[in-house]
Amino acid sequence: MSFPSDARLGWSWGLFSLTLFSGVASCPNDPPTADIPDLALAPDLATLSPAQCLAQLSQCVQNKNPAPHAFVDVTKNKEIDLLFVIDNSVSMSPKQRVLAQAIPQFLQKIDGTGASYHIGVVTSDVGTLPPGQTGWPGSTEVRCATQKGDDGRLQNKACTSRVLPPDMATEFAMACRNGATPLCPDASFVPNDLWISKSGSSVNVTPTNPGALTASQIAQRAFQCIGLVGDYGCGVEAPLESMKRALDGHLPEHQGFLRPNSVLSINIITDEDDASVQLSQRQYLNPAAMSCSTANPDPDYPCFNLDYRAIAKSTQCDQSMATPGLKTNCRERPGTFLEPVTTYAKFLQTLRPPGRMVIAGIISPSLQDFQARGNTGDGRLEVEGFSGDVSTQVLNRGSRTKAACFNPDPTLTTDPRGFFGQAQHRLSSFFRSFDASSRVEKSICDPPNYASILDTVASKVATALGADCLSDKPLVENGTPLCQVGFVDASRPMDVPASALAQCGNRCCQAWATSATPNRGDASIQAACAAETADCFCAPSSAVQCIGTAVAGLWRVGNADLPAGQTASFRCISSL
Hints:
alpha+beta, Rossmann fold, elongated, disordered N terminus
C-alpha cells in the first residue's frame, strides 16, 4: 500500500463542493512541527493502519498552511444554462399555462442534479420591418410593425404587467393573475437579473413575502411569472432567430447568462413553424394586401395574409398553396426567403460540443412524419378559408381537426379554434440535425404529458452533466470506504469537517453504484435512500459510471439541499 502526495478534486453540487484527498501520507511543502510530524519521514509509517492514516490526515490538514502549488486543483463545476424560447403569438396562452404548471416538477429534477442553473426566457418575436424602416405604409398591423421585436432579449417581466386593462378576462389574464388558481399571484417573484440564477439555497429572486418557501420553490414561482409571456407577439414566429440572438453576444446585458463550461439546454415551445426571414428579404413581409387571382398557382408574397405567408412561400406541395384543401408531398421550397435551418444548427454547434447540449421542442408534429405514414394521423397540412371566402388573403392553415394536431379536451381552452398545432417542417429539420441522444421532440397537442416531456429533458441534462466521481478509488476497511465526509464553510473548503458522516445503508449505496446518472436527482437513488434517518455518504465502486474509481455520493435526509453557505468535503485514503 502506498500513499502518494496530497491531491485535491472539487466540484460543485448545488451549494457544496466535493473534495477528495487521495494520498495522505505527507503534507508537501509544510515544515515539520513539534506536534505534527512529517509523515513522509516517519520511520513507522508502514506500521500505521488505514484508520490511523485517516486520523493523521485530519491532523495534517488542520495544521498546514499550504503553498499554492501544494495541491493539484482539478475543479469541475456543475452548471446548467437553460434557455426557453416561448411563442408569444395568438393561440399560445393555453400552451404557456400548461407549460408553467409542469415547471415545478421539472426544476425539482434539475435541482436534483446538484448543479447551479440559469434559466432564461425569450419570445418568438423579432419583428418584421427591414432595417431603417419605421412602419409599413397603409398597414394597420401593429403586432409585427417593429424592426427587432423582443430581439431575443431575456425576459424578466412578470406576466401581470402584460395583462392589458381591456383583457382582464382573457385566458392569459386568468392563467396569470385573475383565475381561481393564478400562476403569478405575486408580481415580486421575478429575478433581479434578466435570468433566474440558483445555486444551492441561493437564488436571485427576492419576493416581497417569500414566507417559508425554499430557494427551489422561489425559482419555480419566478419561472411561472416570467414564462407566461402572453399572446400579443408577432404572428411571424421566429423561434430559431430569437434563440440565436439570445446567445450570440450582440446584447451586452446577456453577459454572464451562458457560462463557458455549462451544459446548455435549448427548449422551444411553439404551435407553428419557424418563420425566421432573412434580414435582406424582409421587404416580403409587407402586410399590405393586393388583389390576386386564385388561378395563379404561385402568387406573389403580398397575396397571402402575414400569418400564412411564410409557410405558403417556403413550402412546395403537389397542390397549390393558394387554394384550400389537404396538401401532400410537401417539402421545403428551394430559394426560400427564410434563413436556412442549418444556419441555426451550425451556430449551436459552435457553442457546445456533442454531449454538452440538449435540444428540446414541444412543437407540432412534422409534415415529414405525416408523409412517412402515408398521409395519415398528425402532421397534416390542410389549408382553409374564412366563412366561405377562399381568396388568398384569408387562407390559413386549418384549425381543430384540420390542423397538424388537435386535442379535443374542452377544458384546455375557450378558444373556438381549440387546442391545436399548425403544420411545420423546419423545426423538425432543425431538431433532427442533432444526435438522437441529445434531442427531444414531442407534440404540443399532448398537454397531459408536458411534465413527462420535461422529465425526459431533465434526464438528458443530468446525463450530459456526467457522474459524480472521486479521482481515485478509496481504500475500504470492513466494508466502509476510508473517507472523512462532512460539511464545511463554503468559503473555506479546505477545512476539516467538525463531524463526519456515517456510510449510508447497503440499499442506498447500491443504488449509487448502479445508477446511470449517480446524483441525488436520480429516482432510483431517491427511492433507495428515502429510508435513511441521518445524513450519510456512499463511495462505492461502479460498473456503470466512475469505472476504476468510485462514486461520490452524499445523501441528506429528505433529499434536502446542503445548509446555506456549507459545502460537503470528501477526504479519502486512496488505494493506489
